TrEMBL record:
Cofactor: pyridoxal 5'-phosphate
Protein family: Belongs to the class-V pyridoxal-phosphate-dependent aminotransferase family. NifS/IscS subfamily.
Domain Aminotransferase class V: residue ranges: 38-425
Listed Pfam families: Aminotran_5
UniProt entry keywords in alphabetical sequence: Iron, Iron-sulfur, Metal-binding, Pyridoxal phosphate, Transferase
PANTHER family, per the entry: CYSTEINE DESULFURASE, CYSTEINE DESULFURYLASE FAMILY MEMBER
Protein name (database record): Aminotransferase class V domain-containing protein
Lineage: Eukaryota, Sar, Stramenopiles, Ochrophyta, Dictyochophyceae
Secretion signal, residue range per the UniProt entry: none
Amino acid sequence: TGVVLWFAMKILWRRRNRLGASRSGVGIPLPYVAEGKVYLDWNATSPIFPEVTAAALPFLSRNFGNPSSDHCFGAPCRDAVSISRLQLASLIGCGDDEVVFTGCGSEADNMAIRGAVRLGKTGFANKELVPHIVTSAIEHPAITACIRDLEELGEATATFVPVEADGRVRPEAVAAAVKETTVLVTIMHSNNEVGSVMDIATISALVRGKSTEAQRRLGLPLIHTDAAQSIGKVKVKVHELGCDLLTLVGHKFGAPKGIAALYVRREVQLPSLLYGGGQEGGRRAGTESVPLIVAMGAAARVVDWELEAINSHMRQMIDRLYRGLVTALKQHTLRVNGPPLNAGDGLRLPNTLSLGISGAKASELLAKLTVSDIAASASAACHSADTAQDSISFVLVAMRVPDEFAKGTLRLSVGRHTSSKEVDRAVSVIAEHLSSCVKI
């Protein structure tokens, strides 16, 4: 079966090279988004790509079998899961046996963190030692909440490394936080609010250079990066990053919600988070959701094949958006939060604009934009509903963004299907509403 799947992937790659960019969906508006509505919140979630829907539909009808079953109904589903695993492996440059499907990014992050802590607890010769985790001050709540829980239970200690004013963490600061008891270093690949990209490769090299002989014997500390916001926007290859664990989230790059994956380097014996059946090589119990896995595989194929075109398109749309706002808002003082917009992929995401508007109140402006069918945000969707209307994002606080800009910050993010027409309408509507939102 493995040989057949390998040749199937080879055929797909040949078709890709033959078709080239002529069949690309980059820049083409989605047919199911009504005229006049503008979606600039791709960092919260992406629309499901049409190719992804088409790939998943057969597994919502005739291909309904359990992938663990040996009969004729299970075999097509099992093969589909295997192909999807190969597609994800191709995307990030790993072996298909190193891809573990999970139900969401939060589960993948928890699996990485709690698994590393268990490895430390069982491996330490001195059982009184408490595993230590190094992370940054601007991680996703899936990381910080899990770590805080372990701290409260007395199962781990943690160091939260501060970030620079551009939203990036210094690799030297991360390495300096490593102790003899450090079992995990988890630093996001890119930030979901300001788009800053971290230097994971240098972090990995410095951390490994600082580990003790005792840690190396245990294969510790493990290095994990949450790449949820980076996949489908910039190149992400695990061998270049030097990481042991990496989180991918389907709904951030064209797949439905409810499916994610954790890359686990082959040599890492990461303990399971969920127990039950022997699915996912015994690493994650639970019958696989074949439609969602197929969808994630199809999305991985799309962004793998079109990455260069998608990256370029996103950069063009953000540049058009920013230039349009600068021209339309000449009377206002603007601040780009994070690295400069002209920075390369190694410094910032091509699709994200965190724009501080002096004197504005983001909550008021967003309310007006919502009425006008412009979708944007002020912070990460996963926790924006739980904060006070005029509170400042913890990411902007960590970056020491001045209050006058932080309180008026919009997060605008584009994607594969964002059009120039959408961008121009957003500029016009934002400028119109700002006239009534900015304090004189």
